[in-house]
Amino acid sequence: MGGWRQVSGGWGCSGRAGGRGAGRESRGAGAPAPPAAELALRRRLPPRLPRRPGDVYVNMQTDFKAQLSRCQKLLGPGGGCAEICIHGLGLAINRAINIALQLQAGGAGALRLAANTSTVPLADGLEPQGDADGRPPLAQARNNSAIHIRVCRVAPPP
Amino acid sequence: MSNAREKKRAKKMRNQPASVTLSSDCGPCHSGIQHHNGGSRSFQTPKPDLHPDASAAETPANYQHHSPGPSYRKEQYFSKGQNRAERGRGRGGRQNVSQEMPKYVTASTFARARAAEINAMLKAVTQKSSNSLVFQTLPRHMRRRAMSHNIKRLPRRLREIARKEAEKAVHQKKEHSKNKCRKARRRHINLVVEFNRRQKKNIWLETHIWHAKRFHMVKKWGYCLGDRPTTKSYRACYRAMTKHCLLQDLSYYCCLELNGKEEELLKVLARMCSIDTGPTFAAVPCLSGRLQGSLVLYRADRYPEDLLGPITFIWKPKHVSGITSETRQLWIWTHPSLKQDILTELRTVFQCSEPVETCSPEPIVTLLQEEKQTDVVMIVGKKRKREDNEGEKAVPVKKIIGDGTRVPLQSYCWTSQTTGVVISDLTMEILRYRLIGPLSHCVLTEALKTASIQTEMADSETELNNWWVENCKNSERVSLHQRQEAIFELLQGISSPSEIAAGTILGLTVGDPRVNLPKKRSKAMPNPEKYQDNEKVRQLLLEGVPVECAHSFIWDQTICKNVTENKIPEQDLNHMRSELLVPGSQLDLGPCESKIPILLVQQPGKVAGEDRPGWGSGWDICVPKGWGMAFWIPFVYRGARVGGLQEGLKHSEYKRTPHVPNDFPDCPAGIQFAKELKNILLEKFKRRPPAKRANYVKLGTLAPFLCPWGQLTRDWEIRNKAQEESVITSSADSESCATEKQIPCEPKPGQIIEDSQGDVVEEMTQIQNLCKEDGAATSSDFFVLRNRKLLKQLSARCQPSCGKGQRVRSASKLGQKEMTEDALLPMFKCYPRVLVWVSLSLLRKGSPELHAMICIPTQEDLLQLSKDQLFCGPQEPKHSDIFKHKILKLKERKKRETNGKALESGASDALEAKAVEEPKELILGLWPDSLPDLTSHCSRILLGFVTQGDFSLAAGCGEALGFVNLTGLLHMLSSQPADKKGLVLLRTPASLQYRFARLSIEV
Questions:
Q1: Fewer C-beta neighbours within 10 Å, C or N terminus of chain A?
Q2: In what order do the strands lie in the sheet with A83-89?
């Protein structure tokens, strides 16, 4: 995979990509207090790294075509990127793969793909809805799958 | 037309001497002949005769040489003039006289007559008719620069007049005290005196001067605040909020401190808030001091009415390195417009009436008094300078730090005899800055460096840092400081503040931020190398900041005072900088460097709703007073963009949170705000000519400037009563719908079902009890629904269930709550006059405005929408202006009245009385005060109004926030098909076009 850094996270507002439904209600696990604290689950943003110019974070809200054309522009003559990284998290993995394949199909053999998968640790904030003391944790950890596809040009453009 | 012309002429002739009749006498005969040959009257002037005579008399002759021009012009004018008859009369008389040629002219009488005329004419020439200054009357090519200032630039003949005018102007100008030259005025000491004087009325923030140079300033809530930058930066500020960092000075927020036993405080405070609206003061994470809490305060035992306003609060952490303190300290941060209400309510509830002299504000008071005295010295005489020369005896004038409007002898701290609770008003004692945006971590960590451990005093004489040295002797505390430091360092590895738990508090002691100020303004960028320490960051994200790390010395008044007083002045710092061996190198103050306790509070961004989670999150930083600019400039130099009140408003709009005090129509400050806004808008409306402004009567807009919430709820109540039967049938329908929906969904674990059902039932009985208790009160006034459970149910019902997956999800999410729909309706009916905070996003075109109307679409509208995807929305038919005639009539009558009064003043008493009993004033294009039924005035039924609305840069479409009536909302939802639930129509006040919008309630 060359010198590509293993990116462990970094999803913009990939809205529904990771986990669904904010405000899902769950019960404080193992809360001994009789009126168990009702908790609201609030998704937090996935951790992300500072963005380089060639990083594209795929999400499910933006139009597919727009995301594709953005990648094409980056790879194109004026884009200034020899290689780009397409990151997809959770639900957006499919779309990330789709974009990469579309790029390759449209690139007439000039593009090479290299895919990497990883697991991203996520945190969901738990907000108590009342005053009841269950001493719940502030957040819940969960993991989600992610894909990082490196797209680079094989031959310099004519 | 002719009237206007006459008037114009009258004005022109105003200063003409009455005795002089124009033209005839002085006009030379040829003019008369030449130009009036067409006219029937051929009048002759005595001029031809005059000629030989005139040579004898000198003056007339002189005059005559000059005359042809003007007289000629006058003739011209007259020939064009309208009032020929009049002229004819005048001329006719003269014609008779001049019919026969005089045989002789007596020189003396003739000269006398001419002399009078000449005098009059001279007088007319010297007396200018317009009220312009003399140099303004000069033709353009004779004007010179700075003419008004320097009379020597005027032509000599005008100088005398100009001098007189200038003298007059000087007298008219009000006496101003700046008899000093500019240099003297700008001298630091005089500047400080002047600034101190100017901030006696309105409080200045410490960043005032900085803001005043860059912002449009407004006087609001007793403060001078920056409204918006003078540069064009609307979009740039938005970008800063989303991608970089926006800085705001929130020091005008007021801090109220409560000191007392924990149970005592909680017991009383519980009366002022309700668990229904969310976690209260007693919520465990808040009570321990780990998190900042936020809630809405009500008057004691008055929930859900009598709102006081939203607040945030921070408890001082309980255990300060092992010492368990029984008394707790609580900070309540409020908006200044709500402060007075909350403070008085707190004082009555806690029975705090005894002013405390020895308490915290005392030093400030003395300080202020000192200032006062020095001011007095300054004002009494201008001996200040002399005193300075004499010796250093004079007390140097101090800059006002803190609240400059405080009355020195008044106390700002009260205690209660019975409970021992102490309430103090810490307004302007603690500064608060807000950093919004993902790069706020970078800005914070680059600008602030944690204080170094110091075990020896720099100088035994000063008190500088003595508290810190004391602190550093305790190893436990040193380790605490190191832990805080470690957490602060970790922030660099977190890309957005929204990844941290909402309301996290981190206490810190930092070094002087002015020391490592970069030379140029630069932008702090995240450093990828800092993102390596994954394990610790994960722990921080999951577990939050430990309780003990929330401790800060800023809670200690004496330390704050010490820090404020021992600040190294900017001047000394610059001096030290200039004496560095290598110019431009880092300044190292060593033990002299001040240590400042600060408090960092995480501000959660957008928490409600599905999209853009965590948008607009950031950090609040609390700094002891006096250190405002010392922290401000480093932040700005790290690339933070500064926003004002407008940016704050936009921030809350994009976050879809209610803004204080605009969006709290049921609290006194909100009502006051609405009234002021109405007056401003009305004045603006009235300034335009009637033909150039919107006629709101024709547009069917009943209340374009003020949302009549009271009447809206009342109208819906009446409407609801009238439609009771139909509502019941529809509710039955919806019930059957609900049960249908219930079938496919898999019920969740039984426990929850029971629980939520139990909750609801319990809730219902509770509410019904409540309604019974104060049935009279509920009918008297409206309030806003803030019960979280009810809002959640409502928001679930507002969601459309079109897609299959979504349907299942919503059904499973709502679980059993929809089953209780039939139970819900009567429960909501117990709230007959309730408003609900909703957010709306437009489906297609349109950007909503302030006070836009939210209406219920008819079945046909929805049908048309489903047929045609590009359907923008229906149009409101034009209304007729029924008041236009009345206004015209009134106008006429008034005119007649004034005429009549001019004739006979005594007889118009009856008329006057009539005029008084007429409606106060009718303004063309506005409804008079008594509005008809709001809901059914237009073709679509009115549901509510928009309080904030604009094109949202964050969502990319028009978005609005506002309130709707609960009864109306339920009525609408029950009649809408499942896939079109929550669709409403929006109409801006000055338009007839309705636009479709989706309504949602975010909890």
A1: C
A2: A24-27, A38-43, A111-128, A139-153, A83-89, A55-57
